[in-house]
């Protein structure tokens, strides 16, 4: 089943096109990960799908409706997004920040209900941030702040959650905690999760579906086994990857890789030295 899709979407800034005629389908109630090199359009695509920025052409459809024509509050009850570099928490406590996730459910008076407070505490608890509820967000570490922002997205209680590099600033243990939390929300509550990740092995471990982008165009979309393969990674990242199997999940994993561009540059750099050496020898 597909509730969310893009049809021939192009997105740019001025005359520069970042996403080019992209048509993707997001599997419902699955975890989808978008991968690609820096500047390939991953974050831009997320912003266009969630209506943070406008697209120049094409359409984004949710439940058969064009999101550009959808009521903002109705859309906010269906989709939540955690940006790559969230801002705007200055002077707020963690609990106050998470309460912003309840905005779509508030009436004209903007008062929080008992249900709102229950959801806020739940979101803080599942992200391991309940102890920071009354602490200023500015006083938290980078990892603690990131988990509070994720709690705000969860408090929005949407079926679909977008996260742009949700493991940024987190150490390895907290990265795993966040990704396992998202996986649990997907499996137990059937939330549709769409996220951008840089770590290929994390993407392969937690995703059901992967979209690989290069220069704003889709190179490959499919299961982890279909996307995490040497030929796709060669085209997307310019690396020569050795792919094995994760012994715990049996999913593909990148064991090691060489940088193809770097090898070529090093080879070309060594050519004059080789000629000089050959000349001196003869």
TrEMBL record:
GO terms for cellular component: plasma membrane. Residues 4-240 form the ABC transporter domain. GO terms for biological process: iron ion transport. It is a peripheral membrane protein. Pfam families: ABC_tran. Its main location: membrane. Transmembrane segments: none annotated. One of its GO terms (molecular function) is ATP hydrolysis activity. SUPFAM superfamilies: P-loop containing nucleoside triphosphate hydrolases (SSF52540). The keyword Nuclease does not apply. InterPro entries: AAA+_ATPase, ABC_transporter-like_ATP-bd, ABC_transporter-like_CS, P-loop_NTPase, Siderophore_ABC-ATPase. It is found in: Cell membrane. CDD domains: ABC_Iron-Siderophores_B12_Hemin (cd03214). Keywords: ATP-binding, Cell membrane, Ion transport, Iron, Iron transport, Membrane, Nucleotide-binding, Transport. This is Iron-enterobactin transporter ATP-binding protein. The lineage of its organism: Bacteria, Bacillati, Bacillota, Bacilli, Bacillales.
